[in-house]
Design brief:
179 residues, alpha+beta, Ribosomal Protein S8, Chain: A, domain 1, three-stranded antiparallel beta sheet, 2 domains, 9 helices, 6 strands
């Protein structure tokens, strides 16, 4: 069964693709999909040639590039080990004026909080005007989502740091225990 999916894009995506013309061809080959770009409508149609899950991988790859994810992390989304999770603060924050303050708390001074969350969870984190993109394994994303929720809830950073210490311990234990 052939699956078609239309994905919204932006100018950032097309500008990036102009600088890296082979990137999309490589992704299409990896995912066994066809991608029809429509610059006028700023979207792409993804057509499967094989597994339906490959369409999802290509969708996540394209979306990640629209959000400014670097090529290395975007390519991770073409594998089975990594996934993309988006948090749109506009959908979870009642007062839209609070979004810049919450994003500033997530980023921290000179990016230190974002870096601590990323290092503790193993998850790559990208932030735009109101969206947070997480790239990682299922467990890594769950840890990062919980860390971000602590901040969104207004908890002090001390609570976040305690949670991240717990995450580091749990991840170490998982690495030590046989599967």
């Amino acid at each position: 069964m052939q699956i078609n999916l239309v994905v919204p894009l932006n100018e950032r995506f097309f500008n990036y693709l102009n600088k890296n013309p082979n990137l999309l061809e490589e992704a299409k080959e990896i995912t066994n999909t066809e991608v029809i770009l429509n610059r006028e409508n700023l979207n792409a149609t993804i057509i499967s040639k094989g597994r339906g899950s490959d369409v999802v991988k290509m969708r996540d790859f394209l979306i990640s590039l629209t959000l400014g994810v670097d090529e290395i992390d975007a390519k991770k989304l073409l594998t089975d080990e990594y996934m993309l999770y988006l948090i749109d603060l506009r959908t979870i924050i009642d007062k839209k004026d609070d979004i810049p303050r919450i994003l500033a708390r997530i980023i921290g001074e000179e990016g230190k909080i974002k870096k601590k969350i990323s290092e503790a969870t193993g998850c790559s984190i990208y932030i735009t005007d109101s969206k947070i993109a997480l790239i990682g394994s299922y467990d890594e994303i769950e840890y990062a989502k919980n860390a971000i929720q602590i901040i969104v809830d207004g908890s002090p950073h001390a609570r976040l740091f305690k949670y991240l210490e717990k995450v580091i311990r749990e991840r170490k234990m998982k690495q030590l225990s046989p599967i």
